[in-house]
Amino acid sequence: MTFSNLDRPVQFLKGVGPTRADALARMGIGSARDLLYHLPRRYDDASTITPIANLEVGLETTVVGRVRSKGVIPTRTGLRIFQAVLEDDSGMITASWPGQPWLDRKLSKGDVLLVSGPVRFFHGRQIQPREFTTLSREEDDEMGGRIFVSYRASEEVPQWVLRRIFGTNLDKLLEWASDDEYMSES
User: Fold this and answer.
1) Can you spell out the DSSP letters for 24-77?
2) What is this structure's pTM?
3) What does the pLDDT look like over 28-43, one tens digit per residue?
4) Is there a single domain that holds both residue 54 and residue 88?
5) H-run or E-run covering 169
6) Number of domains composing the chain
7) I want to staple 135 with a disulfide (CB 3.0 to 4.6 A). Which of 25, 38, 50, 112 is the partner?
8) Does 59 lie in the same domain as 127?
């Protein structure tokens, strides 16, 4: 029996390490092969995303923006609304998540979000996200013209971490997969 590079523990891939490997294992990703077959669930093309300045009230839309400010707003009824002001090159919009104050701990100022939902008018234009993805953290700055891949993620291993792991290791994983295929033919 030959040992394939794809059977290596995911811990030894660049950017993973023991702590992140444990979190990946809880997602069912224990080897390089498991990571390679952790397929994307969606692709978003940044070149087709609507600029914030062009958003129209009443339409369902997808935007990409950097979190400029954020906070939790209490209401008189006791509901707590998390709001983040998103900014792109064309303008700003408030994203509102009613009843989700925990997002204040999850998202940071400077994070880049891909947000999908209806645009409404309430004290100005707002988007009410049905779905959102953290594309990158503040230290990452490349955004325009990219295809954003969304993977099945977890609280411990968010989208931006998976994207970074794949970005760092994908060429090596594909090389190992082609070597593995070649070895199995002989």
Assistant:
1) HHHTT--BHHHHHT---SEEEEGGGSPPGGG--TT-EEEEEEEEEEEEEEE-TT
2) 0.61
3) 999 999 999 999 887 8
4) yes
5) helix 159-185
6) 2
7) 112
8) yes
